[in-house]
Amino acid sequence: MKGMAPAFVELPSRVSVYEVSPRDGLQNESAQVATHAKVRLIEALVDAGVQRIEVGSFVAPKWVPQMADADEVCRMIERRQGVTYACLCPNARGLDRARAADVDEIAVFVSASETHNLKNVNKSIAQTLRAFEPVIAPAVDQGLRVRGYVSTMWGCPYEGEVDPARGLELAKHLLGSGCYQVSLGDTIGVGTPVQTQRILDLFAADIPLEQIALHLHDTRGTALANVLVGLQMGITTFDASVAGLGGCPYAPGAAGNLATEDLVYTLHGMGIDTGIDLEKLWQAGQVAEAIVGRDLPGKVHRAGVRSLAK
Ligand code: HMG
Ligand code: MG
After folding, report:
1. pLDDT at residue number 307
2. Lowest CB count within 10 Å: 77, 107, 149, 194, which one?
3. Contact residues for 97 (Cβ-Cβ < 8 A; gap 6+)
4. Does 91 contact ligand 1 (Cβ within 6 A)?
5. Sequence spans of domains, the chain
6. d(CA 309, ligand 2 centre) in Å
7. Does the structure show a pLDDT above 60 at 122?
8. Average pLDDT for residues 233-237, to the nearest whole number?
9. What integer pLDDT is reported at residue 1 of this predicted model?
10. Which among 275, 194, 290 has a CA at the least distance from the CA of 1?
11. In this structure, which residue's CA is closest to atom 9 in ligand 1?
């Protein structure tokens, strides 16, 4: 196929799943989910073997009211050794909250397109990067891990096509500022496999791909196809959300992250370890559905873990 160069490496034996449902999933729910219900979901996910989990956002409550109780969520969850608990953090105020809440990790976020960035954080991209100065370096100094997101890498809901070279510059900036990993967001789920390969080819020329994760929304059913390209090119961290819960309040149409069960089912079927118990993960998906009170779209969530033929 034109554009599909044989740049593939062997599949990894283990992949790290970065669970985002308590943040990316719940931030987009119209109903306010009770704090104790969020805690129940987080604990069910950790029980299933999830080792990295974003449990909320320290953003402005008037911007994302669903995340207003992130401090309380952090206080209430029973911490499990070996699990990294993370929260989004856009500014110095967010870092103060992160410290008080004793999270292990924070995540800063910026978009590769100006208009989405402005709608999301009320700042230009350049202003956003400046707002990270009192966040990333001080957080690292205080022993927190800092992750970065570059959103709208595959397309912007306001501007359409996005030049991946702009995202690459942002990713380099974030890594150079102290982020240990940058997660590339297909915020509105428009990406297709050859496009993913082109983006990763561009990144691989400049950045070790171990420092890159993929954060794919499955709005058009292409997320797993993009995961496969990522795996073959050396990506070993994938963000996902149980039962496909998710979206972005400032990205119209960004319904549904890649469902964690669909990711884990596919990886395990390919002989790739995740450390997650798929049956228990499926149960956590039932918790997610119960607490939001609506049907969730994940494929394995709906079909069940095993085929009927067994
Ligand atoms: P602003 O209104 O420009 O900032 O918002 P401000 O500094 O003027 O603050 C406004 C008010 O918010 C003030 O309160 C501040 O104190 C307060 P007031 O004086 O009016 O009562 N405030 C805060 N309160 C608590 N915690 C804070 C905080 N900061 C300010 N940290 C700001 C700028 C960045 C704060 C705002 O735009 C915001 O919070 N945006 C967050 C939007 C968001 O969370 N979007 C979704 C997450 S990103 C995403 O989903 C994409 C991702 O999944 C990857 C992908 O899919 O591609 C990560
Ligand atoms: Mg997202």
Report:
1. 64
2. 194
3. 58, 70, 71, 87, 89
4. yes
5. 16-303
6. 35
7. yes
8. 97
9. 47
10. 194
11. 60
